[in-house]
Write a structure and sequence with these properties.
252 residues; mainly alpha; globular
């Protein structure tokens, strides 16, 4: 999955204004990762809690609540003046980078929703031993990402940061759909046949389990915008903010 990053950055580097668009892509991903941090550990939560059809339905409802909440936050940041408050006032990003990143973040409005849905069903697949389906889903994601990057780079007249945003959206939607389809036989053949043996899983129980995992992820991912805020206050901020995501992605 980490191969996506270098692919996107390689595409951006071959289009117009690579420094500006690489820096804008770094800002876009920093914000997107913070917004999606509550849903990343849904995989672990699903592995632990989805034992039968009742717990599956309870956690699916919980996932939908998270999707709605995170999508509302994404919309508020991407489409309202809150974006300028976050990017210019708090993170002190150069105006030119802020304006370049805004359309990309708007394109990725439903990115967190696709990630949440995919992580939920990946957890179910892993719990019931279907780990190869997870690998296949990731391969489908990478294929969709590379295909979209190639198509848009060759045919569309879009800034590099918007090409990457379109590609990552195509990738996560393709993987979410594939993972959902892979999970259907597991739900029918395993989950539905397991009789409830415990107390019904309540939403409050799920929140108590998931909240520490989400908080841990948030604390980890907040390092990205904090680093960007620090680099933006140094000399040559555009070049520095363009170079840092490339170096970090190679390390990943």
């Amino acid at each position: 999955m980490m191969l996506e990053g270098p692919a996107f950055q390689g595409a951006i580097s071959r289009l117009a204004a690579p420094d500006l668009n690489l820096a804008a892509w770094g800002l876009t991903m920093s914000l997107a990762l913070i917004i999606e941090s509550p849903v990343i550990m849904l995989l672990a939560t699903a592995i632990a809690l989805v034992r039968n059809s009742e717990s599956y339905c309870a956690l699916r409802q919980f996932t939908l609540h998270l999707i709605v909440g995170c999508t509302v936050v994404a919309g508020l940041i991407a489409f309202t003046p809150l974006y300028d408050v976050v990017c210019r006032d708090i993170l002190a990003q150069p105006v030119i980078i802020v304006e370049a990143a805004r359309p990309a973040l708007q394109i990725m409005l439903f990115w967190t929703a696709a990630i949440a849905w995919r992580r939920f069903y990946q957890g179910i697949l892993i719990r019931h031993g279907h780990v190869r389906a997870v690998t296949l889903g990731t391969a489908i994601r990478l294929t969709a990402a590379l295909g979209t990057v190639w198509l848009l780079t060759a045919r569309a007249n879009l800034p590099g940061v918007q090409v990457a945003a379109c590609a990552v959206m195509a990738a996560v939607v393709a993987e979410a759909l594939a993972t959902s389809l892979f999970a259907v036989p597991v739900l029918r053949g395993h989950v539905a046949r397991i009789s409830p043996t415990d107390e019904p899983l309540r939403q409050a129980d799920i929140w108590r389990f998931h909240a520490p995992l989400a908080a841990t992820t948030l604390l980890t991912l907040v390092a990205h915008p904090l680093t960007s805020a620090a680099l933006a206050r140094l000399e040559h901020p555009t070049e520095t903010l363009a170079a840092w995501p490339v170096a970090y992605m190679v390390l990943l």
